[in-house]
User: What shape does this take?
Amino acid sequence: MKTVKVILREDVPKLGEAGEIVAVKPGYARNYLLPRDLAYEATEASIRRLEQERERAEQRSRRDYLEARRRASRLEEVSLTFHARAGEESKLFGSITPADIADRLKEQDLDFEVDRRLIDLDEPIKALGVHSVPIRLHAEVRPEIKVWVIKEE
Assistant: This one.
């Protein structure tokens, strides 16, 4: 049975994931995969290009990871203090949001900015005390900073 090799541009159910080289029947490639731009022909040049793209992606990923580790080591030293008005049972009047934390981080002597969307608070801080706040720098790097919320006198 004759087959042709194609490189998938997108994930195709029951066939493979984007970037994979798969062998399919010529009719399936010609009538379905190629016209819908789901794949392209696996020539020597395209396979070489795919390998180069994978290498570049790996290098970029490794560089991003190392940069995230560097930033994480700086962030783990950070401790933020907020003075807030609080009522009975240590409940705050208002709350401390990721935007507040991001603004306070800008005041620190960091050589980078932390976007508020990277601050991983499920809900705003509404109580006095010490809170560990995780920050998503990379899929594998999530340092935590200490946020102290002290009652305003």
The mean pLDDT is 90. DSSP finds three helices and eight strands in the chain. The chain has two domains: 4-69, 75-151.
